[in-house]
Design goal:
With 75 residues, the chain is an all-beta fold. The chain is 0% helix and 76% strand. The chain has a 7-stranded antiparallel beta sheet with strand order 1-2-3-4-5-6-7, with no helix packed on it. The chain is globular. The protein starts with a strand and ends with a strand. The model has no long low-confidence stretch (mean pLDDT 91).
């Protein structure tokens, strides 16, 4: 995940084995909420609901009908 932050607006891209997804969203109440459209293998909406705790990104990633999964990361 590569994100750009300007004020409360967040844009970026996620790259995975299945392809890449452009994301857009914002920051509110201590959480970043991002969304993008993908077509791997069918059209789905990819969402992220994350926050930073103890210097690490943590939260959830939803992949349409494929489910919701925990996500973590560091800078």
């Amino acid at each position: 995940m590569d994100l750009n932050v300007s004020g409360n607006v967040i844009t970026g891209k996620v790259v995975a084995e299945q392809g890449s997804v452009d994301l857009a969203g914002g920051f509110k109440n201590g959480r970043a909420k991002l969304e993008g459209k993908a077509s791997m293998p069918m059209p789905i909406t990819i969402t992220y609901d994350v926050t930073v705790r103890d210097g690490e990104l943590t939260g959830d990633n939803s992949n349409g009908p494929f489910g919701t999964f925990p996500v973590t990361g560091v800078r």
